[in-house]
Specification:
about 325 residues, about 10% helix, seven-stranded mixed beta barrel, 2 helices
C-alpha cells in the first residue's frame, strides 16, 4: 500500500513539472521552452487599441475609438522580429489565441498595423480607384501604430491613418452642382490606374503625395452637360493623417478654380453642426460652401471654426467650435 501511494505521488510530481515547463511564447519569441528552474510568467499581452480619427464614413464611424463594422478583424502586432495576428472587437480590445507574453518585462516596444496583410506592413499604401463603392472606400484606409514603448499597467496602443482624407465642395456660378461627377486625376498610390472617384459625399482617401503645379488634377462633369478640367495652378501637398477641405468653383463657361480651404488633423473629435448636418468628425460637406482663399498646408497650429469661418458649406449661423491641431494658412 505504501509503495502504491509513493508511485501515485511520483506521477503527480512529474505531471506538475511537465505543466510548469510547458512552452510559453516570450516577447518576440516563438514558443521555445523555458530553462528549467526559471519562473514561468504567463501574462499574455492584451492591448486596447485607440484610433486617432474616424475609420470610415459617417454611416460606419469608429467614433470614440471603437472598431465597428469590420469585415476583416485581424490586426498585426509586432514585437521584436515576430508578427502575430490579433483579433479586434468593436471596443478595440486586441486578443490572440497564441499571444505574446510580458515575461519579466514591465514595458515592451510594440508596433502594429491594419489590415493584417498576411503579417507584412506595406511600404507604401495603395487606395482603391472607385471609392463610390462603400466597400472600396473602407478598404482604402490603412492604420499604423509606430513602434512605441507600451506599459504593462496601461497597455494601450494608438493607431493613426496612413492616408489623407480629401473632402470636396463644388459650387457652380449661376447653376447647381447637384449630381456633379468628380474624378481626381494623376494620383500615385492607386490600384489599377491613377484616378480616384470619391464617394457620394465627395470624399476620397488618397495616398500622401504632392500634386505639382500644371498637372491636370480634377475632372468635373455637371448634369447641365458642362465638363470642366482643373489644371493645378499651384502645388497641393497632402500629408497622411490629415483631412483636407477643397473648395472647387466652376464658372458659367467651365473655368475651374480650387483651393484647400481648411486642413485639420484627423483626430476623431466630434463636432455638432447646424441644420441637417449630423454629428461627425468633420466629415460633412455641403455643395456651395463658402471657403476662404487660403490654402492651409504648413505652419503653427491655430483654431479652426466649424460653422461660420472657413470650412466650406458651413453658414454663419452657428457658433465656432475649436478643433485640435489644425494647420495655419499659408499659400504654396
Amino acid at each position: 500500500m505504501r509503495r502504491k501511494t509513493f508511485l501515485i505521488s511520483l506521477a503527480v510530481s512529474f505531471m506538475f513539472i511537465a505543466c510548469s515547463e510547458e512552452n510559453v511564447s516570450t516577447p518576440g519569441g516563438s514558443g521555445d521552452a523555458t530553462t528549467p528552474g526559471e519562473e514561468v510568467t504567463d501574462s499574455a499581452v492584451v492591448l486596447k487599441a485607440n484610433i486617432n480619427g474616424l475609420k470610415y464614413s459617417n454611416t460606419r464611424a469608429t467614433s470614440g475609438g471603437n472598431w465597428e463594422n469590420l469585415e476583416d478583424t485581424l490586426v498585426a502586432i509586432k514585437i521584436g522580429d515576430e508578427v502575430k495576428s490579433y483579433g479586434v472587437d468593436e471596443e478595440g480590445l486586441l486578443t490572440c489565441n497564441e499571444p505574446f507574453y510580458w515575461g519579466d518585462n514591465d514595458k515592451l516596444t510594440i508596433e502594429g498595423w491594419y489590415p493584417y496583410n498576411d503579417g507584412e506592413k506595406p511600404a507604401e499604401v495603395s487606395v482603391k480607384s472607385d471609392q463610390s463603392v462603400e466597400e472600396n472606400f473602407q478598404a482604402s484606409d490603412f492604420l499604423e501604430a509606430l513602434p512605441a514603448e507600451i506599459e504593462k499597467v496601461y497597455p494601450r496602443i494608438s493607431f493613426t491613418h496612413r492616408v489623407s482624407k480629401v473632402i470636396f465642395s463644388i459650387s457652380v456660378e449661376n447653376g447647381t452642382s447637384q449630381g456633379a461627377e468628380l474624378k481626381i486625376m494623376n494620383l500615385v498610390g492607386v490600384e489599377n490606374g491613377n484616378e480616384v472617384t470619391p464617394n457620394d459625399e465627395n470624399t476620397a482617401l488618397i495616398a500622401p503625395q504632392t500634386i505639382q503645379e500644371g498637372i491636370e488634377f480634377l475632372n468635373i462633369n455637371l448634369l447641365s452637360g458642362v465638363s470642366a478640367v482643373y489644371e493645378a495652378d499651384k502645388e497641393f501637398i497632402f500629408e497622411q493623417g490629415y483631412i483636407y477641405f477643397v473648395d472647387v468653383k466652376i464658372s458659367e463657361v467651365g473655368g475651374v478654380t480650387a483651393e484647400i480651404a481648411d486642413t485639420v488633423l484627423w483626430t476623431g473629435e466630434d463636432i455638432d453642426l447646424p441644420g441637417e448636418s449630423s454629428k461627425v468628425n468633420p466629415d460633412t460637406y455641403d455643395n456651395g460652401w463658402s471657403g476662404g482663399d487660403d490654402e492651409n498646408l504648413n505652419g503653427e497650429s491655430s483654431n479652426v471654426s466649424s460653422p461660420g469661418i472657413t470650412a466650406p458649406g458651413w453658414n454663419t449661423d452657428g457658433e465656432s467650435t475649436e478643433l485640435p491641431a489644425t494647420k495655419d494658412s499659408s499659400n504654396q
